[in-house]
């Protein structure tokens, strides 16, 4: 072996889970020019050592492919960290106190913006404007809920938007009202736009700062690549600017937003954004389509109506954001233009409509390696499980939600009913039927920590209550399958499995190093493990100081 073939870096003394097709194990990894030179036994990899090779000993550590988050609102998650942040707060009183403190600390801000509140702390999941009026009476307040499908506003915001008892319901949204018909303070889905359009524009510099903060945070969790599924023009500019400046270390796929109030006339804009947005580490090749809302505010599109407090069917089965015949036409056009479609579908009707749209596209265009995918998949009809594999549609799952936590028990199960509730988050059923699984966090809706996500996928219990009764335990996945969904599975949905997602010679050296071998029984709960270093293309992008770099 000549000097040109020596490794730049060797990680040795660890356990290495390669995630190759055989799911083979090793003891060491050699890296050269940003790619995997060798992986296997310590002895075989040592043959690549040269006089300038850097050796890093990792006894007791686990080396895995870098995590790839298939659904993370990275830029906007970073922005939340600079605003009124409620994600790490629990309970109505704590929310109000946090908002009060934030407003007092920022007297110069015209609007109080932020979010992260959770619905289970309020009756029927809808907070009242009076709670905000007590602490911020003089400025408009606009706070997204944790899943960004609803917003909590105060009277000043409602007044500024002209929302009153006489206001009609907007298309694709709902104004929560009190018994007298007055706006209560919660806006659902597109009703949020009535206020959001008045909020001061986020500046380019603010977006860049949010993106930098998000990248640093995600790298600290072992994430090397991600898919950001809600991209507007200003977001695209921020990603491209950071990449051009050399500040984007992650590999990123972007999903351009399909505006539901437009039709095919937006296609030329999307094609131009794709052409301009495919540069460096950025590929703006996806399209995000919202086909419904969420179950907790009754906007997820269901095959059967929601139930009322007495368990009786209501007249509401949710909202199909795009009429099915239009969806079929739009997806057929996008597929013909080579776009990858990323559907948001929570309810079983929305899932079916999304699958039908892919089927319609294939009927017209023929089958190609499109890798369209449906995210969230909270309720899936059993007749549609096998269609994922048949149509080549990837199941893009957010596993942290698949447990019986407060929102599930207080809000979701009562208005879904027992039969539908047994069809929630059917990860194992989809996998048994041959579907490819990809995992994503949906941060800032929920934690972006892949280890917590995988723990819930395996145990189906809340992170903070592992002794709870597992939620639909027949849908649990094992550790290898869950790790695969967060590495090679997400690489597949990103059309990047030939270069990332596993530790194999020739692939990019995108790696995560854990503080322990989580496959060992004595390792403890997966969520207790920690990432100690992250490498992208062989370069260290996160190091907690204990890895020895």
Question: Which key features would you list for this structure?
Answer:
about 550 residues, alpha/beta, Urease, subunit C, domain 1, Diaminopimelate Epimerase, Chain A, domain 1, TIM Barrel, nine-stranded mixed beta sheet, eight-stranded mixed beta sheet, 18 helices, 23 strands, globular
- How many discrete structural domains? 3
CATH architecture assignment of the largest domain: Alpha-Beta Barrel
Total beta-strand segments: 23
* Low-pLDDT residue spans: none
CATH fold category name of the largest domain = TIM Barrel
**Portion in helices:** 25-40%
Distance between the termini: 25 Å
CATH class of the largest domain: Alpha Beta
Q: Say what oligomer this is.
A: single chain
Return the average pLDDT rounded to an integer.
96
Morphology: globular
Largest sheet: 9 strands, mixed
CATH superfamily assignment of the largest domain?
Answer: Metal-dependent hydrolases
Q: Name the structural class.
A: alpha/beta
Tell me the fraction of residues in β-strands, as a range: 15-25%
Radius of gyration: 24 Å
Supply the number of helical segments.
Answer: 18
Describe, in plain words, how this protein is organized in 3D.
The structure is a single chain. This protein has 549 residues and is α/β, with parallel strands linked by helices. It folds into 3 domains: 3-65 and 504-543, Urease, subunit C, domain 1 (Roll), CATH 2.30.40; 111-196, Roll (Diaminopimelate Epimerase, Chain A, domain 1), CATH 3.10.310.70; 204-493, Alpha-Beta Barrel (TIM Barrel), CATH 3.20.20. It contains 18 helices and 23 strands. Strands 6, 13, 14, 15, 16, 17, 18, 19 and 20 form a 9-stranded mixed β-sheet that branches. Strands 1, 2, 3, 4, 5, 21, 22 and 23 form an 8-stranded mixed β-sheet that branches. Helix 2 crosses helix 7 (204-220) and helix 7 (204-220) packs across helix 8. The longest helix has 18 residues, at 348-365. The chain is globular. The model has no long low-confidence stretch (mean pLDDT 96).
